[in-house]
Design a protein that fits this description.
Layout lengths: L11 H7 L11 E5 L4 E5 L13 H20 L2 E7 L8 E10 L4 H9 L17 H13 L3 E4 L3 H19 L2 H9 L46 E7 L4 H20 L3 E5 L1 H4 L1 H11 L4 E9 L12 H4 L8
Antiparallel strand pairs: 1-2, 2-4, 3-4, 5-6, 6-8, 7-8
C-alpha cells in the first residue's frame, strides 16, 4: 500500500481492476487515460451495441461498473478516491475522472469488495434450490442504496411471473430483429479474442420452457438431471433518474451489488432484455411502482462458480495523452 503521492504507473493496478467489471455482451466499452495523478474514463463508441443499446445507456452502466472498481482499487492503494462524473462538457465521451485524495487505509468493506473482483463473473448455469438468507438479501439492497440506486427483490409468484413474462416478451421482440441476431452473433466469440461471450461462458442454449428467457451464446446443452432452479431469486436494479449521469450511478451500484453477492458466496447472472426494449422497460417500472428507471435484472443464488469471460490486455484499453484543463 502506498503512503506517498500516487503516480501514473502506480495507478495501473486500478485499471487492471477496472477492466474486470461486467459489460453488456462483454463488449468492454471503455478506454482509460492515465496521468501522474488522475485516471480519465472514456466511452469507447466503437464497442457500443448499435441495435440493443442505441442510446448508449448500457454502455454507460458498464463504464459505471468499471468506475466502481477504480474507486475500490484506489482506496486499496491507500488513497481516498475523488470521482467527478462528466468533468468536461466539451467531451461528452469523457465519463469520469478519478484522482487520489488524502492518504488513508481502505475500510474493511472496501478491502473485502476489492478482493471479490477477480472472483466475480456472470454465471449462466443452473443455480441450487437453496434460499438466500434474509440478512444477505438485505445486504444486497443496502449495497444499491449506498450508491444512490434502488434494488427490488421480486418476492412471491405474482412478482416473479411479471418479470418472467416481460423477459420473454422482450426476448421475443429482440430475436425477431435480424439486425439484433447479427449483433448478438458478432459478440459470440472464442475465448482467445479476449472479448465477447464465448460458448464456454455463455451457459446452455435456451429452451422453449425456460422460465427466464436466455440468450443463445452457443453453449453446450445441459447434462441429464440438471435443471434451472424452480424458484429463482430475481432482483431489479434501478436509478432515480434516466439521464446519462444516472447510468453511471446505476453502474457503480450494480457492481457494488455484484461484489457484495460474490463476497457472500452467491453467484449471479444479468438479464438485460427487458431494459433493451423501451416499452417493456416502462411496463416493468410501472409494475414495480417505481420512479426513475430500471437498469438491470439480476438472478442470484448459490451455485458452482462460473467460467469468467476473458478480458482484453491493458494495452488495448489505455490511450495516450491527457485532456487539457
Amino acid at each position: 500500500m502506498t503512503t506517498s503521492a500516487t503516480v501514473g504507473s502506480e495507478l495501473l493496478p486500478a485499471v487492471e481492476a477496472a477492466i474486470r467489471a461486467p459489460s453488456i455482451h462483454n463488449t468492454q466499452p471503455w478506454k482509460f487515460a492515465l496521468t501522474d495523478n488522475r485516471i480519465d474514463v472514456y466511452a469507447d463508441r466503437d464497442r457500443q451495441l448499435r441495435v440493443a443499446d442505441p442510446g448508449a445507456s448500457a454502455l454507460r452502466v458498464s463504464c459505471g461498473a468499471a468506475i466502481f472498481n477504480l474507486r475500490l482499487a484506489m482506496a486499496c492503494l491507500g488513497h481516498e478516491p475523488a470521482v467527478v462524473l462528466f468533468p468536461d462538457s466539451r467531451e461528452p465521451d469523457l465519463l469520469a475522472s478519478i484522482t487520489p485524495g488524502r492518504a488513508r487505509p481502505p475500510s474493511p468493506v472496501e478491502a473485502a469488495l476489492y478482493a471479490a473482483i477477480p472472483r466475480r463473473c456472470s454465471n449462466r448455469e443452473p443455480f441450487l434450490d437453496t434460499a438466500v438468507p434474509l440478512d444477505v438479501r438485505a445486504q444486497l439492497r443496502d449495497a444499491a442504496e449506498a450508491e444512490g440506486a434502488w434494488l427490488d427483490l421480486l418476492i412471491g409468484p405474482p412478482a416473479l411471473e411479471m418479470a418472467a413474462h416481460l423477459v420473454r416478451a422482450a426476448n421475443r421482440r429482440l430475436t425477431q430483429d435480424e439486425a439484433y441476431r447479427a449483433e448478438l452473433a458478432a459478440w459470440t466469440r472464442d475465448d482467445a479474442t479476449g472479448e465477447g461471450v464465448s460458448p464456454r461462458a455463455g451457459g446452455p442454449p435456451p429452451e422453449p420452457h425456460d422460465f427466464l428467457a436466455r440468450r443463445d451464446f452457443g453453449g453446450a446443452a445441459l447434462k441429464p438431471g440438471r435443471e434451472f432452479e424452480r424458484d429463482p431469486l430475481v432482483a431489479v436494479l434501478g436509478s432515480r433518474g434516466d439521464l446519462p449521469p444516472d447510468d453511471l450511478v446505476a453502474g457503480q451500484a450494480l457492481q457494488r451489488v455484484l461484489l457484495t453477492a460474490t463476497r457472500a458466496g452467491l453467484v449471479t447472472s444479468l438479464i438485460s432484455q427487458p431494459i433493451e426494449v423501451p416499452a417493456v422497460r416502462e411496463e416493468l417500472r410501472v409494475g414495480l411502482r417505481r420512479f426513475g428507471s430500471p437498469k438491470m435484472l439480476l438472478r442470484t443464488g448459490y451455485g458452482v462458480p462460473g467460467a469468467p469471460s476473458r478480458r482484453r490486455p491493458l494495452a488495448a484499453v489505455l490511450v495516450p495523452g491527457a485532456r487539457r484543463l
